[in-house]
Amino acid sequence: MTPVVLPIHSRSGGYRVAAGGSPVEALVRARGSGQVVVLVDAAVLRLHAEAFRQAFGPEVPILPVVASEQTKSYAAITPILESLLDAGVRRSTVLVAVGGGIIQDLAAFAATILLRGLTWRLVPTTLLAQCDSCIGAKSSINLGRHKNQLGTFHAPEEIHLSDGFLATLAEEDLRSGLGEVVKFHLLAGPDAFACIARRLREGIPADLSDLVVASLGIKRPYIEEDEFDRGIRNLLNYGHTFGHAFEVASDFSIPHGLAVALGMVAATRISAARGWCPEEHAREVEAVLAPLYRHHARTVAHASLEVMIAAMGRDKKNSADRQFVILTRGPGRMEKVQVDLMREIAPALGDFQAWLRRD
Question: In terms of Cα–Cα distance, which of 179, 100, 105, 192 is closest to 140?
Fold first, then answer.
């Protein structure tokens, strides 16, 4: 099968996304020629052991890692770097990362700093990673209790997608990825939002490959225009400032994409309360996203408001004396807005929690 190819322009050199084929075909494409070493989510290796055997054989070092927030930390990166060196990594070695966002973050960070820079390739295996994080070149590593405060910009040489990996995901992982898919379609405008609303009306679509490619196509111009996240790329964080706060307040029990889904509902309701968008739009956004996040609404409804506001205060969009959130005037009309967290956002979040508790 000839894969669909999506080129991405980057100041550090262009790279491409190849989408299509089986997991074995994606892994074979990622292996290429020359010396490679594989960093893989241990769960993915277990589920797709035969595909790895066919693609890499016994001669390629494969390093399984348990993907968790604890693993994606500065403290945990040292043994991973040591394992890569023990596996014989040299400057000419290509690091192949196979897994979701955590493995991607670890591989990108390691490839940036190890031996002053390694070439790396990515095979994302979750819907969230395939539709969103695989492009953009960012890595984010936790430092103690500070989430995602370390990181680099280091683009992979190639990205290889296969929807065969999605077939082994749990339903909650699919719903988490769909939270980001909805975000991209909201960013794209009214027609795209109406399209995704129709697609999700009957539940999780059986075929997600076209939604993955569409989401990457929506994201591409943002990251190409603003590679280092100083301007328009901030709009991709619609729902994220609130979502990250919900993750922290739930001790990361809420999957990222579902926290973002709840964050988008919060941002839209706050926008409607300001008169920025119609109440009807807030209800439409909630109707599309509620089936995705429904199991986690109660957690946010009863979370500590103090913890959430503190987490929002640590958002990377903020400066020393200014705090920002992304609000909306409707589909395709997101804006970065300076706010007072204590005077404006804390009461609004309290109202949002009360709204979640209404049932």
Answer: 105
Helix (H) or strand (E) holding 15: strand 15-19
d(CA 20, CA 113): 31
Q: Which two tokens stand for residue 107?
A: 């591989």
CA 176 to chain centre: 9
Q: How far apart are CA 4 and CA 212, in angstroms?
A: 12
pLDDT of 58 > 80? The answer is yes
CATH of 171-356, one of 1.10.357.10, 1.20.1090.10, 1.20.1050.10, 1.10.10.60: 1.20.1090.10
Q: Which of 229, 230, 235 is nearest to 335 (CA)?
A: 235
With cut-offs at 50, 70 and 90, classify the pLDDT of residue 1. Answer: low
Q: Are 317 and 235 in contact (CB under 8 A)?
A: no
* Topology at the third CATH level for domain 4-168: Rossmann fold (3.40.50)
